[in-house]
Write a structure and sequence with these properties.
Layout (H helix, E strand, L loop, with lengths): L8 E5 L4 H12 L3 E6 L2 H14 L5 E5 L5 H15 L4 E4 L15 H29 L2 E6 L12 H21 L4 E8 L5 H11 L3 H8 L11 H12 L9 E5 L3 H4 L1
Parallel strand pairs: 1-2, 1-4, 2-3, 4-5, 5-6, 6-7
Helix pairs in contact: 1-2, 1-8, 3-4, 4-5, 6-7
The protein binds nicotinamide-adenine-dinucleotide.
Length: 261
C-alpha cells in the first residue's frame, strides 16, 4: 500500500516543539519530504533527530526563521521551493500564548507581540505559500487557530484577537483559492499537553502546576488534556488528498470544550 505522503513536500512552522513537531513526525512516517521552520535552531535539530529514528530515509530541510518577519517567511518559502520544486502541504502553525491578564492590564506591547507572531506570521505564510500552490493547481493548508479563536476564554486579549483572526484568514483565503484546487482549513485545539501549555500552567501554579492542570481540565467533557499525537493524526489527515474537499472551515479538536459553555 502506498503512503499518503509519498513524493509530497510538507512545510511546517513551529516544527521544533509540540504540535508542529508531532505533525512532522506523523507525515514523515508516511513518506513526506519535509521543510521545517522554527525560531529555535536547536529544537529543529531535535525534531530532525526524532524523525530520523522513525523515518531514516526522510529528506529534511531545516530553516531557522521568525515568522513575524515577512522577509524571513519569503525566504523559508523560497528555500523550500529551491530544494524541492513544490509545496504540497503547509502546516502554518507557529504561535505563542502571551502573558495572561485582564484586558486593561494586558499591555499594548504584549498585544502587538502576540498578534505579530500569531496573526501576521500566519498571513505572511499564506501570502507566500498560496502563490506557489496556485501556480501548481494543488495544495492543502492547515492554519493553527485555537478554541480561543472560536469563543471567549478570558485573560487572553492578544491570543483571542490573533486566533479569531486566523479563523477569518482561513475562511477568506479558502473562498479565494478553492477554484485553484487548493484547500485551506484551520484547526482549533483545546488544551493539548505541549511545552506551551506546561508553561502557562507554571505561570498559574508555579511548583504546583500539575495539580492546577488537573483542576484546569475538570470543565472539559472528557476531563483530560489532549495528546499532541491526537492533533498530529488530524493534521496529517487534513494535509492529505483525502481532505481536499474540506475547505474554508475550522475543525475543533478539544474533547467537546468549545460546545459545552
Ligand atoms: N497546546 C495547546 O493546548 C494549544 C491549543 C490551541 C492552540 N495551540 C496553538 O498551536 C500552535 C503550536 O503550539 P504548541 O502547543 O505546539 O506550542 P510549543 O510552544 O510547544 O511550540 C511552538 C513552536 O513555535 C516556535 N515559535 C514561536 N514563535 C515563533 C516565531 N516567531 N517564529 C518561528 N517559530 C516560532 C517555538 O520556538 C516552538 O518551537 C500555536 O499556534 C498555539 O497557539 C496550542
Amino acid at each position: 500500500m502506498s503512503n499518503r505522503f509519498d513524493d509530497q513536500v510538507v512545510l511546517i512552522t513551529g516544527a521544533g516543539s509540540g504540535l508542529g513537531q508531532v505533525s512532522a513526525l506523523q507525515v514523515a512516517k508516511e513518506g513526506a519530504k519535509l521543510s521545517l521552520v522554527d525560531l529555535n535552531s536547536n529544537s529543529l535539530e531535535e525534531t530532525k533527530k526524532l524523525i530520523l529514528e522513525v523515518a531514516p530515509e526522510a529528506e529534511i530541510l531545516l530553516l531557522t526563521a521568525n515568522v513575524a518577519e515577512e522577509a524571513a517567511v519569503k525566504n523559508y518559502v523560497d528555500e523550500t521551493v529551491n530544494k524541492y520544486g513544490r509545496i504540497d502541504g503547509f502546516f502554518n502553525n507557529a504561535g505563542i500564548e502571551g502573558k495572561q491578564n485582564l484586558t486593561e492590564d494586558f499591555g499594548s506591547d504584549e498585544f502587538s507581540k502576540v498578534v505579530s507572531v500569531n496573526l501576521n506570521g500566519v498571513f505572511y505564510g499564506l501570502k507566500h505559500v498560496l502563490a506557489v500552490m496556485k501556480k501548481q493547481g494543488s495544495g492543502s493548508v492547515v492554519n493553527t487557530a485555537s478554541v480561543g479563536g472560536i469563543r471567549g476564554v478570558g485573560n487572553q486579549s492578544g491570543y483571542a484577537a490573533s486566533k479569531h483572526g486566523v479563523v477569518g484568514l482561513t475562511r477568506n483565503s479558502g473562498i479565494e483559492y478553492g477554484q485553484y484546487g487548493v484547500s485551506i482549513k484551520a484547526i482549533a485545539p483545546g488544551a493539548i499537553m505541549t511545552p506551551m501549555v506546561e508553561g502557562s500552567l507554571k505561570q498559574m501554579g508555579g511548583d504546583n502546576w500539575e495539580e492546577v492542570g488537573k483542576e484546569f481540565v475538570q470543565p472539559n467533557p472528557m476531563k483530560r488534556f489532549g495528546k499532541p499525537e491526537e492533533v498530529g493524526y488530524l493534521v496529517a489527515f487534513l494535509l492529505s488528498d483525502q481532505a481536499n474537499f474540506i475547505n474554508a472551515t475550522v475543525i475543533p479538536i478539544d474533547g467537546g470544550q468549545s460546545d459545552k459553555y
